Amino acid sequence: MKSFFNLLFKPNNKTKKNEESFLKFLIISLVGLIAIFDYFTGSGIRVGLVYVIPILLSASINRLFGFIIAIVCALLALAIDIYLQRYSDYPIYYIWELITRGMIFTLVAHLRSSLMYFILREGELARTDYLTGAMNLRTFREQLQTEIYRASRYCYPLTIAYIDIDNFKTINDTLGHSEGDRILCTVVTTIKQHLRKSDIIARLGGDEFAILLPVTD
């Protein structure tokens, strides 16, 4: 039963790694298919822009993998150009194509990975309290409804702890709001150090916090 709840509440890192590895395999396979298509189209048709597709996909996983795929695509395109002698009359074009493709492909990977980072970052900020990093009230309510449903369905206990900092207004008035902010952050950090991964701490507002403790009575 314990292992079941661990699976229910804790992220399965092995599954995530397997999914990421599978996606990388698909992207590498796509690069190979594009290279084959590029080769068989001959010198009359250029498909260089199609390489952008796997670059965008790879950069969505992480920036380093995006850069690697970008470089591989640039080198593959160059190798095919040389083999098909697309610029046999002007060999200097091979160097020019390598430089321009390399710059464009790596720029695409950089922009895509940066965009993904900001999207994920904005999503995280929308779910957390800007000062303490704890979950905000809106997200806590959503999570609470989910955990109540799970507790009801699987018949396990669910505990909610309420925390209020005594005399916090006095601290702000005497020591200043900066010191009060520091205390709030310290409280959240200290509590997080003693929570399980399945537990959730949220700032309800001011000096009020709530802790959601699944499978706890």
From TrEMBL:
Pfam families: GGDEF
GO molecular function per UniProt: diguanylate cyclase activity
Keyword vocabulary terms for this entry: Membrane, Transmembrane, Transmembrane helix
UniProt-listed Gene3D superfamilies: 3.30.70.270
GO cellular component terms listed in the entry, alphabetical order: plasma membrane
Domain of life: Bacteria
UniProt-listed GO biological process terms: cell adhesion involved in single-species biofilm formation; negative regulation of bacterial-type flagellum-dependent cell motility
Entry keyword annotation includes Transmembrane helix: yes
CDD domains in the record: GGDEF
PROSITE patterns, A to Z: GGDEF
Regions that span the bilayer: 21-37, 64-84, 90-111
GGDEF domain ranges (all copies): 156-217
Protein name (Swiss-Prot/TrEMBL): Diguanylate cyclase
Organism: Pseudanabaena cinerea FACHB-1277
Upper lineage: Bacteria, Bacillati, Cyanobacteriota, Cyanophyceae, Pseudanabaenales
